[in-house]
Amino acid sequence: MRRRESTASVWLRRLLGLVLLVALGWFGWLYFQIKAVAGQDRARPADAIAVFGAAEYLGRPSPVLHARLDHAVELFRQEIAPLVITLGGGSDRDSGLTEGGVGRDYLLANGVPYDQIVAETESVDTEQQVKKLAQIARQRHLNSFVVVSDGTHLFRIRKLCEDAGLIVYTSPRPALGHIDNYDLSLRYFHEMLSYTLLRMHLDFGWMHEKDA
Description:
Helix content is about 50%, strand content about 10%. By secondary structure, it is of the alpha/beta class. The strands form 2 sheets. Strands 5-4-1-6-7 form a 5-stranded parallel beta sheet. A two-stranded antiparallel ribbon has the order 2-3.
């Protein structure tokens, strides 16, 4: 009996070791993929610029959304694309305001013509924003996009867009001041876990929290 228990224990330890090795390999690969995409601006001429949403405060862009929109304005002025799409809805606490709508108003105030802006105002998370972007692409016959968001966010966005049949070029927004190692580690951890759960078709509420 002891011998059987000992053999079972050995096999269990081997199995756990194998699972741990696979997990380490997966997260190691994922970390370097996210880092590679975050570290390069691949913007090039495309049909549209898509700005992924972040929080808005009473009709004003949060610092993160502000930086994304400023980057989109810069790309528009460089004539990277003739159209800018702002993505993101709102919640019951937003008094009818949406990330996409606030983004549109900010672009208008910074010289982007009204007829060259599309505001999507219903999506609540990254996956929904990609689905809405794909719908806009079909409706307007758009093929390629420069996608703007935080650097660590762009790997997941690119994969979701590719799954939706979109051609995308990633362009990270500039950093906001100094980011300490702890905060950066949390961002990588969030993206690695979110992407892993996405590929496992698992969904948790914390995955839908807005960027500040």
